[in-house]
Every structure is written in C-alpha cells, then in structure tokens.
Amino acid sequence: MKLKIKNLNWLAGRPVVFLNEETAKEMNVFANDRVAISNDKKIYAVVDIFPQIVKRNEIGLSKELTKALQMRNNSLVEVTTSEISNATALIGKKMRGGELTKEELNYLISEIVHNNITEAEIAYFTSAEKLQGMTMGEVVNLTKAMIKTGARLNFEGKYIADKHCIGGVAGNRTTPLVISICAVAGLTLPKTSSKAITSAAGTADVVETISNIEFPLKKIKKIVEENGACLVWGGSLGLAPADDKIIRVERLMNFDIEPQLLASIMSKKISVGSKYLIIDIPYGEGSKIDSLIKAKRLGRKFTHIAHKFKLKIKVVYTDGSEPIGNGVGPNLEMLDLLLILRNSPEAPKDLRKKALFLSSELMKLCGIKNSKEKAEEILNSGKAYQKFKEIINAQNGINNFDEKVSSLKFAKFKKTIVSSRTGKITQISNKGINSLCRILGTPETKTAGVYLHKHTGKITKGEKMITLYSESKSKLKEAKQFLKEFKPIKLK
Amino acid sequence: MKLKIKNLNWLAGRPVVFLNEETAKEMNVFANDRVAISNDKKIYAVVDIFPQIVKRNEIGLSKELTKALQMRNNSLVEVTTSEISNATALIGKKMRGGELTKEELNYLISEIVHNNITEAEIAYFTSAEKLQGMTMGEVVNLTKAMIKTGARLNFEGKYIADKHCIGGVAGNRTTPLVISICAVAGLTLPKTSSKAITSAAGTADVVETISNIEFPLKKIKKIVEENGACLVWGGSLGLAPADDKIIRVERLMNFDIEPQLLASIMSKKISVGSKYLIIDIPYGEGSKIDSLIKAKRLGRKFTHIAHKFKLKIKVVYTDGSEPIGNGVGPNLEMLDLLLILRNSPEAPKDLRKKALFLSSELMKLCGIKNSKEKAEEILNSGKAYQKFKEIINAQNGINNFDEKVSSLKFAKFKKTIVSSRTGKITQISNKGINSLCRILGTPETKTAGVYLHKHTGKITKGEKMITLYSESKSKLKEAKQFLKEFKPIKLK
C-alpha cells in the first residue's frame, strides 16, 4: 500500500511508524505489528496507532526512520505487512544453537545499528547468546562487528592504556585514582566510564559531581592529548553503538550475558585505541561472580580476545565480598577519592590499597619498572592529586576545581546507626548497600548515599556503623525500614 | 520526579510514555528506557522522546497507560527511572531454567494482559520457554492463567465441539466443511479462526471473502445458538488476551514455541466452552512437523492437557507433505469449498476426503454412531451446503449468500504453467507455495493465489501444472521468477 510520508521529530529508540486507525485496518496490521517500508532497500518498523497525528493513508516516521529513509514529507512510499527480515533468520539460527559466521554477525550488528530490527528481536538474540552460548570465534567476530560500526579514536602516545572492572562491588571507585596515577607515570588513558544502571553510582556519576563528563570525540582527543588522560562518560560517544542498543534491552533483565559482556567491554576499549588493558574481576559471595574458578574462566576469555586484537592484557582477581571504600553514592565517593588523593589519614585504606595495586599492575604491563614503588610515590607526593585537578579543570574548561570541590555537600537529612552490641560484622552485602543507596535517592540525587564507618570485623556496642544520607525524610524512613528488614549488614 | 499527566489517545501496543528531551535528560533516561509510574501500584512503561507533544515536566501516556492509571490530565504523578519488576524476576527464573509455580504464572500472565511488561521481556519469556522448556504442569498452569485473564463463552448444548489444525499445509481449508457437516449432525461449534501470518490464507481470510467475520461475543453466542455453529475471526474477541500479545512478539521470529503453542490453542478452545475437540497434526517433509514420532510426541501433550481440563480429545495424524485442495488463496480456496459442498465432479478429492474424515472423527468422539456414513450422507445430500449458507447468512445478517458467491472473482492477471515434459511431480513444497501466494498478493488481495492442476504423481508434457493469479503484472512476473528459481514444484 502506498502511503504519504510525514517525518516527525520523535525519538522512539526503535523504528516506529504512526498509522491512522483506518489505514491500519485496511492493511490488517495492529499496534506493535511490523511493516516493511520499501525504498532502495527494505526497512522494517513497528506500528503505533495515533489518529491525532496522521491522517488516513499517511505514515508518520520516527526520527530513526526519517534518517534511514531520507524522504520528503508528502512523498509516497510502499508499505507492506510484516515479513521476516534476514536478520531475523540469523537470530533464529542462533536460537537453534547454530554458530554465526563473521559475515552474518557483521550483517546482524549493522541491522541493529541502523534500527532495522525491533527490541524484541534483540531480546531473542541476547537470550540465545545466553542460553545457547557463543564460541570464542563468534565473540571475537561480534567484537569486530561492533567496533566496525562505531566511531574510533587514535592516539600517538606509546602506552595507550585502560582499566576496566566488571563491577558488582559497592563503593570501589578506583578509576579516577588509577587514571591520575598512571597518567603521571606517562601512560595515555582515554578513559570512558558508564553511569549506574542498578548500582548506587557509576564512575561517570561520581566524576560528574565536580566535572563536565559529556564531550564530542574531538574534544576528548584534545583533553587526552593535553593532559594524558580523561574521565568522561562513554554513553553518548557512539563507540560501538550496537552495544548501546543491546545493553538497553538486556538491562531490562538484570543479568549479564557473557558473550555480550566480553564483546561490549573489548569493543569499547579497542575503539578508543587502547593497547594495554587491565581487567579487574572481583569475586566472592555477594559479588557478580561467586568463586575464583568462575572468575578465572571469565578472565581467560578476556585474555583470548585481547590476544586476537594484539592487546596486552592483565586480568586481576580481587576480593569482591564486601564494599570497598567508605562512602557509597556520588558525592560521598568523590569525598573518599579526595581524601586519598590528599593523603589524608581519614582516607579509606582498602580503596587506596586497591587503586595502588591496579595502578602498579597497569604500569608494569606497560613495562615500567618498580611500578609498585612508583605508584606509591606518585600518590604520596601529591602528583596524582595535581593530575586529577588538571584533568577536571580541562574537562570544565576553567580552573574551578577548588570551587567545585568546596561545593560538594552531604544531603539535608541523615541518620547514623550505631551497633546495638559488641560483636562482629560478618558480612556487608554489596547488593543490599546498593539497594539502600537507590532507596536514599542515588544516583539521581548526588548528595544521597551511605557512609560505612566499619567494614567486616570487630565492633563494640555504641560504635558508629553506618550513616544514611537523603534529601527526603520519607526516603530516609524507607531506608531505615529496609535496613531493619533485609539486614545488608550482618552483625553477630 | 513528579510529572504532569497528558492522556493521549494513542495505541502503542505496549506501555509507552512520551517525554520532552529536557525532562528525559533530567531523569537520565533515554528513548526505549523504562520508567516506573507510581500510582496505587507501580506500572512500568518505556520512554519515547517527542518534544512536539509534551512540554517539560509533562508525561504523555499511551492509551494502554491512560486506561491502567485512570488519572486526569494535568494531575501529578511520581515517575522514577527503571527498576526491575517482579515479572522480570520471574522471567529471569525461567531463563535460568527454573519451574514457575501456578501463582507465578498467574502473576506473569496478568502483567502481560495489563501491559505492564515490554515486548522485549515477552521475547525473553518465550525464548526461555523455547530453550529451557516447560513441564506439563507449567503448561497446564499457563493455560489456566490465560483463560482466567480473558473473556469466556458458555453454551447449553450437549456437544460443544471444536476442531483445530496446527497448520503448515497450503490449501487444506477443511474447517468450513467440518463445521457445516458436524452442525447438521447436532454438534454445537463456536468456531473461531485466525488470519494468515506467514501462509497464503487463514480460515478467517477465506470465510471473509463472502461473510462478516468480526463480532462481539454476545452476537457470536446468538449466531451459534440459532445456527449451531459460527465461522468467525478469533483475533479481536479477547479470549486469552495474553496469548494475543505473546503471539505478536513471537511471530517476529517465525518459529513455534511448543509450550506457548499448546497453551494458546487449549486456552482458546476452553474459553469458548468446548468439551469435545479434534486436533489435526499434519506431518511429513515440508510440513511443520517432519516425522510421525515427533507428531505423536506433540499429540500426547495435547491429550495430557485436555484431560486436565476434562475435555474429550482425539488427535489425528495426517499427511502434510504437500498442499491439500487445488486453490490456494482466499477466493480460490472458497471456490474449492463451494465445489465440495455442491458435490461438483470438479471438487478437489483430497480436501473432500480429509474434511469427511475429520468430521466423522469429531462426531464419533461425541458418541454419534456410524459417523463415517453419516458425515458422507450429510455432505452428499446437500445438507452441509444448506447449513453453510445458513451460517454465512446469519453472519451477514441478510440472506445474501448467492449474491456474495456470484461476486467471487479471480484476479485480473493470470498465467498458466504447463509441464515441460512427461514425467512425475515428486514434491510440492508447502512453504514454497505459500511464499508464491504471498508474492502474488495474498492474503490482502483476496483474488490472488494459485490453482494447482496437479498434485504429486504422473504428468504429461503440455499438461497444465499451475495457474498464478495476481492483480499486479509486476507481482505476476516476480512470482514466475520465484517459481523458476526456487522450484516449489519438483518435476522429474
């Protein structure tokens, strides 16, 4: 059926068209059905029924389709009812347990990038990845396909390096420290980070408390070239854009899909030009991966892929059984970082130690000798602090670091819980602490979160255990209730 | 964040909200992300960005959400960023291979009916059903949950009966024949049928060539009570509405998901009050199920579920290796049916035979003696034809059967292909014939399709093999090309 195009400036996040009820009836399609739009090639879209916006025989296009079709308002286009696209056949192959070839993965990823398949199909694809698995060959080709369809960065430096933690540990904000230390040591670190999905805060949320984090690629290149590093948000850069779309679908389910996780991390590191990479896999009860055996199994896969791309890699396996650092939540974590960078005696020792370890390992990977001592010297001397300031000032485009830092606040309402007896904290649940912070308002509310006065170990009656921070009295009350009911801190 | 409600009369087929770009940015959500809207209970929706329609701090609701929330324009509602709903946790359980309890399936199906989960999540659910499987207990509970959330019909008659074919065979339009014959024999047959998804025509498409097929439930009840049967479209009746939503997602992938197929068919039969049921499972190369062993495995599952619902069931296994009947396409199939009902010598024998077999089996199941002879007598005597007329006239609300029949036309353009040599037709592919018909314009174009002059067996040079019908010259050309390239008819 020929329909008249109406380009609408509306971002649906997937290819959607609006039809009028009569047109839909004539075509025998329903809301959420799929149609094929034939221009030079066939483009698939799902149908919404919205009579106020389109008249009979008109088709309203979402921004994604306007871009893909490049047709003028009122021009006619052939629209036919749902058919199976080639991409769907490939997803079907994976659903049946087949192995996808390089060409097939290239095609599929390109269709995802160009919004030619629906999110339900992406769900089928990732579900098949999870339940049928992928060979290492497929993961490598998936990684390649995701790099190929995205933007890239290139740097001149000798040691283009990066770090990545697979996450799951509350607090644990090592990135700004590792980046600052290693940049002083002469490494080039184009670091992109994510915002929190289910946790209390992501690195990008924390850096954002005092800094701009969103830049075009050109600007990022400039910041890194001038300062040796950056600490930016990776979300809107268009590095491996297929991955961004896939993540939005899989995050609905709150589980990791291993082949996708591997390809996602590796493609983004390679896209920014990294040649040296340290991967941190925390393991233990209460973290994403519960045993060292499983952690190592995953680590070997990272190593395998890295070698295929001629990347030098070091995988480290760290204790992920409880939160690291004292503050959890954007501002609270930033305050922890500043204490460490300033070598304050109040700085959380576990976070400092882990950051030094990761920095030293990454420096060692780049061939720097006595890396342990060097990392400590860089931090102790205040050079790392100086570098961190420099990066933040560069990102803000003005030397307002001190001003930004002095405006860091705690939330209006707080409540400190003390230990009801002398005994031992046997466990602090990462998931429990993250949920607690989300209830208190993180990551949207930068000032919210918790401060852990104690980690696992001895505690005496009346000693401070945890302080809750929130901008809302009712959220604070809810958090107290959660603490009582789900006991994220186990006391014996 | 509190947002101002704007109810929009727009049917998205899933719970969608419109946000303005600024609002989305403040909330840190992107197109296609999920938000939770808190009213009495939490309702989840996905985000579209549409600045023309909503201002800053406004939230535009799709029809589905307007209905679910029941809130006035300009009232304020709390909207928070994506969280994991309980339904998602249940889908996750199934993804990990867990068994869902009755209560869990009830909850999940109710969430689907109320549009509280996205189509991507439905994809994860059905994908897990396919790859992890379901126990028979789960399938029974799934069936129950789907019935519970839908509309139902009840009839007084002693023998409320139904037939169902799992499909996959081109032509094979037995339903109108079986319904007419069995209605004469005294059975009550509230028959609902579907439209074609990937085939050339569904029963509803064929009946629609001469009849109304869409009615409210009350009207269907009246038609059946007065005429003993109906031949209506089941799509808009709200019987097992969860299934309608699930089917729309799974149809994207073009494969059957067995637990869903079983629950889908059984829930719809039970919802219309059927007590006696015949299930036709065609098998053989080129049909949905390739061997008798697999067909019987599926048949046993139907029997198991039927017994749980105290339904009398008979499963028959029939030859599905090639098309049945000569015409394929809405009008062409209706013309075949009329030839059989009028006992014309040109009527396709295979279709007639199969319809008689199914009718006799269904009558026997209801305890009717000498059912084979009785079915033949009903058809031969013209009583079945009379009943068919009666049903169609009742559905049209006016005695216009003859008029409707005489207006049945063939498409404007046709092309007959004759055999290039004397030999044997060794195979006619169901899928190939269906694809050929779709190219020619079915099911949208009622007059399009093919006429098979021959089935498998001997053929002499110059004998007519197949005639193609289309309203479009270019489609006819495309079909000829398809015939040449993919050879759906194998000649040796």
Description:
Two copies of one chain form a homodimer. Chain A has 492 residues and is α/β, with parallel strands linked by helices. Chain A is 43% helix and 19% strand. Chain A has four domains: 2-81, Beta Barrel (Barwin-like endoglucanases); 86-133, no CATH class; 161-237 and 265-405, Pyrimidine Nucleoside Phosphorylase, Chain A, domain 2 (3-Layer(aba) Sandwich); 413-491, Alpha-Beta Complex (Aldehyde Oxidoreductase, domain 3). In chain A, strand 10, helix 12 and strand 11 (312-319) form a beta-alpha-beta unit. The longest helix of chain A has 17 residues, at 292-308. The first copy, chain A, is globular and about 75 Å long. Chain A starts with a strand and ends with a strand. The interface between A and B is large, with 57 and 56 residues.
